Amino acid sequence: MLSHQPHPDDIELSEIAVGRDLLLLITGGVRHIGAASTAYMDGETARVMTSAVPHHKEHTISEAIALEVAAALNRTVTVVMGIHYDNLSKEGIAEVVRIVGDKVSQYLLRQG
N or C of the chain: less Cβ packing under 10 Å? Predict the structure, then answer.
């Protein structure tokens, strides 16, 4: 489904285990790679490194997600994110952030 407004069914979170590490792919709308954030545990502190494609804003979400998931699961996590909707309003951006946050929360609950 491709639309001009975000919808929970259109934004997807998928996972790939990479040995002990984890790759999360979060996409929606016009799917692409806008940012990649890798978080890892440094003792008891989660740290993150991010690479972002110029003119993309996904890193503003991917960093926090990578840190949250790495700390919750005590493993290295890379979040690759690409979500694009044309002419999205501030409210639409807030809706994307909310939907992604809900999907990450649901994912972590399933990890128990």
Answer: C
Sheet holding 77-84, edge to edge: 12-18, 21-29, 77-84, 35-42, 45-52
Q: How far is CA 65 from CA 9, 29, 51, in A?
A: 19, 19, 14
Q: Distance between CA atoms of 44 and 50, rounded to whole angstroms?
A: 20
Q: How far is CA 86 from the centre of its chain?
A: 19
**pTM higher than 0.85 for the full model?**
yes
Distance, CA of 43 to CA of 54 (rounded, Å): 32
Give the model confidence (pLDDT) of 7-54 as tens digits. Answer: 889 999 999 999 999 999 999 999 999 999 999 999 999 999 999 999
DSSP character string of 82-111: EEE-TT--HHHHHHHHHHHHHHHHHHHHHH
CB atoms within 10 A of CB 30: 11
C-alpha closest to that of 13 among 87, 68, 56, 52:
68
